[in-house]
Amino acid sequence: MISYPAFGVQVTTPRLELRAATDDLLEQLGTLVRDGKAAAHPLPYDDPMSLYESDPELREQRWLQGIWRGRGRVEPDFWRLYFAVIVDGEPVGMQDLIGDRFSTLGTVTTFSWLSADARGRGVGREMRAAVLHLAFDGLGAREASSDAFLDNAGSNAVSKSLGYRENGTDWDTRQGEPALLQRWRLTRESWLQRRRDDIELRGEAACREFLSRTA
What is the CATH number of domain 5-213? Predict the structure, then answer.
């Protein structure tokens, strides 16, 4: 029996696995963060994990602190699940699933990063498809959203390829500077039209119950 049900969730596709980001996996991922391999250009929006601190040790520390804070806030209307992305047995990045007003609206959003060594091979699209399967099939989400700065062609292309539709624009900051975001929206109905039958879930039922009753 797993005492913290969020740690029991696993999503498996033919290309990769999403495993709950336990401290052991975070220690392995920390090497990538410390070495600067989580950094990407164009820069994504500012996130509490502070992946763009210039000092390697401080960058890793603040990244870990952001995850620990997120773990501690688990409520029916807001939660954040952290997953390590495993390719060929090695952790190469993270894929988060965030429930915002979830018990009321059933809406989720995502956040991710991928090691520079693993980019350009379709892994980003596959990990997003995996976490969307968890959201809709495993946790009963009604809608997923995503956003990326207008110059982030890769992220915007992933959203479009997975069936999201453009949902207006908004402003956010990266390293404190304002920039325009493209917003995306994926309904449950649209996801069902593309639903894959080669993605397996484990531990999702216990996690779903845990998220619904946690105060």
Answer: 3.40.630.30
